[in-house]
Amino acid sequence: MCSTMKNFVIPENTSFPIENLPYGVFSSIEDTSPRIGVAVGEKILDLRFIKHLFNGPFLKENQHVFEESTLNSFMGLDRKAWAEARLTLQKLLAEDGQLQDSPYSRAFVDQAKAKMHLPFSIGDYTDFYSSIHHARNVGMMFRKGDSPLLKNWLHLPVGYHGRASSVVVSGTPIKRPWGQICPDNSKPIFSASRFVDFELEVGFVIGSPPTDLGQPVPIERADEHIFGMVLVNDWSARDIQKWEYVPLGPFGSKNMGTSISPWVVTMEALEPFKTQNAIKEEQPLKYLQHTDDYNFDIKLEVYLKPNGATESYRISETNYKYLYWTPKQQLAHHTITGCNIKPGDLMASGTISGPTANSFGSMLELSWNGEKPLILGNQETRKSIMDGDEIILTGFCDNGKYRIGFGQCSGVLLPANQPTEGDCT
Description:
Blueprint: E1 2-4, E2 9-11, E3 23-28, E4 35-40, E5 43-46, H1 72-75, H2 79-93, E6 108-110, E7 114-117, E8 125-128, H3 132-142, E9 159-161, E10 167-169, E11 174-175, E12 178-181, E13 189-192, E14 196-197, E15 200-206, E16 226-234, E17 236-237, H4 238-244, E18 258-260, E19 265-266, H5 267-270, E20 274-275, E21 295-296, E22 299-305, E23 313-319, H6 327-335, E24 346-348, H7 363-366, E25 374-375, E26 381-382, E27 390-398, E28 403-414
Parallel strand pairs: 8-24, 10-18, 11-28
Antiparallel strand pairs: 1-2, 3-4, 3-7, 4-5, 5-6, 8-9, 12-13, 14-17, 15-16, 15-24, 16-18, 16-19, 20-21, 22-23, 22-27, 25-26, 27-28
């Protein structure tokens, strides 16, 4: 059963109901220029055609933000403007709304016929390490006999600065990287990575006017700077990472590509799906304490489609709520030293793993560092991602009345380039 409108149809079980309205950037065959749109049902609403309808007190003088090729200027407004935009869109898209009128038919584009682009220009990218199950799993693998968690982990959201230039939109292929590996723990060799992995993550996107250098964001106001969330696949070359990460952490093992989903789901859409924060095993310092719930019940899945296969297989099923550190705590810690932030900055959660083996968020854990190969539904096995394999991340919230979806975050692993002469030494 569907709710039919003159210009579009909203399927009953869609991931993009009127309660969602995520923002993205798209182009079409008829118009190849990237522009801002909103996903609704199976359509995209092109906001350029209706910018004049955003005539409330916070957007009337800022209608130009809907004509741009990224979300940065719109996200650079404040929460009042974001809320006004959402309320305006819901009124316009209602059954008796103005967008039912035929003159607005050209404002709608089929999602299936659109090309998606990076939704925002990413100035800086930070990756946290905020899943206690993932951190303990990795600690048990590589620090046998010692405490799985390092001493600082329960006291602060561990993170590192990633490479913004290699963040790509869903559907962009990733090439197997070359680098230094040390397979026998003696001398390093130059080789294509032999252990490429995915990492299931969710990132939040910074909005509101930028902060000044030396101006921390207090945890009580952190949510004012968080515009929305995207799915993230932090592709990783585990063998390169193992050799390089001491003492300063990941570098070349992570910068060959990070995939994000094309739709930014707003925090307003996620508000009904707030859930209890993780219980802390150690009391955080005061600047990291908040009593309000800022965790989210987002169901997450990972599928692997083997090279040449027509079917994909679910290999993990977990939930965002398993994160130990909340986005508020991540942002407060990120800025406590005075680090400034800008609209479009991306903050990823780190690998999200649950408490059971089928809820682990990386192949490293699913195959337990290759000791227990993962068996797919077609009886193929995997210790790592093979050339031609496609990794597909999905995420959604569901309260029994409607579903809030993120769309897919997918990417195919391509074979490594052949090194040029002289590169192999």
